[in-house]
Amino acid sequence: MPVPKGKISKARRDKRAATKGIKPKAVAVCQTCQAPVAPHQACLECGYYKGKKVLRTKTDRMYEGVQTRKEKEARMKQKGGESAAVPESSEETKSE
Q: What is the rounded CA–CA span in Å between residue 73 and residue 85?
């Protein structure tokens, strides 16, 4: 079994551990909404990455739901009262 040739001083020994310090994480700023974002990650606030929309956010889904509801109501008004008696849930289950 190998044996060290001489005593390693405390200063020399502690130099090895000196480089293991905790470094702060880098924080970038979103180009579209100026929210703090980790670098090379899509923004969770607006869903953009490098100026392009890549994620659907909660607000996007909410607005899409409102639009589809308005479109359904408009179609029902155009058809008239006679088809209003038929429930639309049967159409939704067929499409799923």
A: 14
pLDDT category, 96, cuts 50, 70, 90?
very low
**pLDDT reading at 82 higher than 60:** no
Whole-number mean pLDDT of the chain? 84
DSSP E strand boundaries for the chain: 28-29, 36-37, 48-49, 52-53
Instruction: Report which of 17, 43, 14, 16 is spatially closest to residue 28, judged by C-alpha positions.
Output: 43
Tell me the domain boundaries of the chain.
25-79
Bridge pairing between strands 28-29 and 36-37: antiparallel
